[in-house]
Amino acid sequence: MDRTTRENWIGVVTILTVACVGCGVAENGPQRHQIRGNVTYDGRPLPAGKISFAPDTEQGNSGPGGYADIVDGRYDTSQDGKGVVPGPHRVRIEGYDGEPSARNDFHRYGNMVFRVHRESIEIPANASEHDFAVPNPPNEDE
């Protein structure tokens, strides 16, 4: 076997080894739990949106974040098959009307009702429910 062929095989074996190790880490990662609930805006179920949960590193929490779509005022992090790590989290909610328009027909959520709402919550170490009532006007960022 010449030097180039040997280097190519070493490269292939290295890539496959890294890929297999990476797959194992994902399965053995931190324990995650389902969180679900309702999201209202101005007292009514939010028609469509996105909600994300990011561990609050300033309070010592770490790990992967979680997310879910909001449909007819409901969300469930089990839709991504992973859930959320327990502890303090920063929550980000984007709200939409769920109605595509000529101006925005490419966006599956419809037209923006509010840009973004943020708040902090504590997620327990088991499956749980948490409802969010987005105020009008919401706590927006720029």
From TrEMBL:
Residues 91-104 have a biased composition (Basic and acidic residues). It comes from the Bacteria. Residues 75-104 are annotated as: Disordered. PROSITE patterns: PROKAR_LIPOPROTEIN (PS51257). This is Carboxypeptidase regulatory-like domain-containing protein. It comes from Blastopirellula marina DSM 3645.
